[in-house]
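lol ok so funny story. i was supposed to be doing the assay writeup but got distracted and ended up predicting the structure for this chain instead. priorities right. anyway since i did it might as well share w the group, maybe its usefull for someone
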Amino acid sequence: MKDIIEAWSGRIQPLVWNIIIVASAVIIGLIVKFTVKALLNYNKKYTDYSLFRSIITHFSGPMNHFVPVLVLNIMEPMMVLSPQYDLILSRTIQILLIISFAVVLINTINIFEDYVYHTYDLNKDDNLRERKIRTQMQFIKRLLATVIVFITIAVILLSFDNVRKIGAGLLTGVGIGGIIIGFAAQKSLGNLLAGFQIAFTQPIRIDDVLVVEGEWGRVEDITLTYVVLNIWDQRRLILPINYFIEKPFQNWTRTTSEILGTVFLYLDYNTPVDALRVEFDRLLAATNLWDKRVKVIQVTDAKEKTMEIRVLVSASNSSKAFDLRCYIREGLIKYVKDNHPESLPVNRIVMTESVAIDKANVPPTDV
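and the output, tada:
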């Protein structure tokens, strides 16, 4: 086979022969690209998760450049070049192959992430285990991608003899340099270590409901250095990741998404509390927001002009608890207004008999 290639290369002009080899690599890459595209179009009609479809989706882009560069790397010795240009081309192809392979590795992580996300689906009420796994997966994915990028850069730099010699000379100063860099980047390193701690001790997880800085929201993203909180009104609160190590915050879904909600009513003292309890039971029976765990209605305080009635209900998650509280509050106020309007708060003025007599004996004033 080698003799045949040498015979053909001897009959063709070097420039033309080199163009043929490059064109062959490009054509093979195009064949792979159109094959992948056809497979993607075939799988468009399937909406459910498929490992095969995930592989095709994530590898379709990288294969467009990985395959041609790989083929060109294999066929490069067949090219007719002067030693100087052969060295430059060979080094360039090797660098491109390293970068392309790094992209393939990162997309391999994305394929594994798709599998984990399919296996641990968040779309259910009790998703504590799923949130744990997803939080760790998201952190590990970013960490591995960062490591791959750094290793790729290191391999490329070490492929140059001059850089390798410089690196060997710098080893003696690594200790001092490490101390200097440590002081300069202590906040960044602190965030990175906090990210490790959060990923594995998990004071917060993806989709956890938090109250931070007086804001209620869900954890949308956890990166190596910061956390994104999706506030209920669609704002985003960005916090450094070490905030959740150093400062207190509320986590409403730390062990379970179940939660209790309260409603306070301030009514007159003549309010029929027993009738209010009957209406409360009727309202709960008519909604699926209540998870049937807790239902309590009590007079919890006696104020100067009204009594405080606290309604305690339970729900499977905080979103349903908020809707349930609003539903109960509206229903009970409507019931009191329609059936016992005298129970609404009023200001009373009581005139004693002696005051009334004194007022009657007051002589009229001259006009």
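The first strand starts at residue 209 and ends at 212. The first helix runs from residue 2 to 11.
back to the writeup now i swear
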